[in-house]
Design a protein that fits this description.
With 416 residues, the protein is mainly α. The protein contains 16 helices and nine strands. A hairpin with a 5-residue loop joins strand 8 and strand 9. Helix 12 crosses helix 16. Belongs to the STK19 family. It comes from Alectoria fallacina. One of its GO terms (biological process) is positive regulation of Ras protein signal transduction. This is Serine-threonine protein kinase 19-domain-containing protein.
């Protein structure tokens, strides 16, 4: 027998797998060694369609949430007995307090407070319906308090219809009086005259320019209490002569065509936009206006034209409101089933900021990550600290979302 002969060259020894008969297997030392083990195959995301980390689909529960009943009202303060208290409560809880250690500098804090002070203390009608259990009773109370002069109703046209409208708002009459007293563009005599006109017609949405002169109307427009209305345009004057200058503009085409190109007269002169009811253009002081008579207001604005009532800062208020509604709905849309618990939605609205508790402060002292600063979140950069509860009530009253009980994770929100 050669010495170099080994078991590897023997034909009696093969590398075939063991017999599949269970009786011929050796006893395993572990209950998991009998299972066939195999390494996972690394596949590319393009073949199996695995979502990336930046995908907007956030599904944390694997299925739909249980629906134990709809929530009709978000009212949590039982001390609110009437509509006037509800309006005051909503307007005072619109924003959250600025955090002390939120990473804000003095300039940003000043901008936040200035914008909050510039907004009118109004409440949209859909927001009121979200805090009251009976819409019919609420509408009846709105009509009664408006007729009594306790609250005032303002309507901004072109801001949606139905429940999603943001153009219909309510404000306390005493807040309107405060805004008139604080307006620097109005003198005391004009403020009292305009306030008396409002008290004489508590349910009016627009007024006639008859009691005011052209100078007074221009001052009220600059202050933001009046805007132009298109109610004076009808089918009879739509096809009027372009040289008449009565339909929407105050300057005739013949007058503009005779002016030198590039001059102020070629665009209607100074204050043309203010005279037509706009808010842009070049501002002039009251000393630069001639003192017109009381009858010149009709000649300027045309017979039958009414001026719509408004409030200072309404444009910024509606812009902030519509942007907040869209952002909250987009957060819910990131879920697969377009529903999310309120606790999780609140966390997403706040932006995942660091908690203010002893455990979070201890992690911060050790240099560990505890969340981003509030100043870097969209809630404070774009919405100036708009409250989550306030925005949720706006979306619920407008019919953009539904709130329901789950029975396991509390209340949840979904898009109908």
């Amino acid at each position: 027998m050669p010495l170099n002969l080994s078991a590897a060259h023997s034909s009696r020894i093969s590398k075939r797998p063991p017999h599949k008969t269970p009786l011929l297997r050796r006893s395993a030392s572990s209950s998991f060694t009998d299972f066939f083990q195999r390494k996972p195959i690394q596949r590319s995301k393009s073949k199996i369609n695995i979502p990336d980390d930046d995908d907007d689909d956030d599904d944390f529960f694997g299925g739909r949430l249980d629906d134990a009943g709809m929530v009709k009202s978000l009212a949590s303060d039982l001390s609110l007995r009437d509509l006037a208290q509800t309006i005051q409560h909503v307007s005072s809880h619109m924003f959250d307090a600025v955090p002390e250690n939120g990473g804000f500098n003095s300039t940003r804090i000043a901008e936040t407070h200035n914008l909050r002070r510039s907004l009118p203390p109004t409440v949209t009608i859909p927001h009121v319906h979200a805090l009251t259990p009976s819409p019919t009773k609420t509408e009846r109370e709105i009509a009664e308090l408006t007729k009594a002069g306790t609250i005032r109703r303002f309507v901004t046209p072109g801001r949606g219809t139905g429940g999603s409208s943001v153009g219909e708002s309510l404000i306390l009459s005493k807040d309107v009086q405060s805004l008139l007293r604080e307006a620097t563009e109005l003198n005391q005599e004009l403020a009292d005259k305009f306030l008396a006109c409002l008290q004489a017609k508590p349910m009016a949405l627009s007024i006639s320019p008859n009691p005011f002169s052209a100078t007074e109307i221009t001052a009220l427009m600059r202050a933001g209490f009046l805007t132009s209305s298109v109610q004076g345009l009808n089918s009879a004057n739509v096809f009027a002569d372009p040289n008449s200058g009565r339909c929407g503009t105050l300057i005739s085409i013949s007058t503009i065509s005779q002016a030198a190109s590039g001059s102020m007269a070629a665009v209607g002169g100074e204050g043309a936009i203010y005279g037509a009811g706009g808010r842009g253009g070049i501002r002039r002081s009251s000393s630069q206006f001639e003192k017109p008579s009381e009858h010149q207001s009709l000649e300027t604005f045309g017979e039958g034209v009414e001026l719509r009532l408004s409030l200072p800062g309404t444009g910024a208020y509606l812009k902030l409101l519509t942007a907040a509604r869209s952002h909250l709905v987009s957060l819910i849309m990131k879920s697969r089933f377009r529903e999310m618990p309120i606790s999780l939605l609140r966390e997403r609205w706040d932006g995942g900021i660091s908690a203010d508790d002893p455990a979070a402060r201890a992690k911060k002292y050790r240099g560990e990550f505890t969340g981003i600063l509030p100043s870097r979140t969209r809630k404070w950069k774009q919405f100036y600290g708009l409250s989550f509860d306030w925005t949720l009530a706006e979306c619920l009253g407008a019919g953009l979302v539904e709130v329901f009980e789950t029975g396991s994770v509390g209340q949840a929100v979904r898009i109908p």
